[in-house]
Amino acid sequence: MENIIESIKKDLENVINLSDLNELKVKYLGKKGIITELQQQIKDLDVEQKKEFGIKLNEIRTLFNDLFSVKQEIFETALINLKLQQESIDISLPETVVKTGSKHPMTRIQEQFEDLFVSMGYTVYDGPEIETDENCFQKLNLCKGHPARDAQDTFYLENEVENYLLRSQTSTAQVRAMEENIEKGPLKIVCPGKVYRRDEDATHSHQFAQIEGLVIDENISMADLKGTLELFLKKFLGEKTEVRFRPSFFPFTEPSVEVDVTCFKCGGKGCSLCKQTGWIEVLGAGMVHPNVLEMSGYDSNKYQAFAFGTGMDRFAMFKYGITDIRTIYGNDIRFLNQFNRRDED
Question: In this structure, how many other beta carbons lie within 10 angstroms of the beta carbon of residue 216?
Answer without folding.
Answer: 24
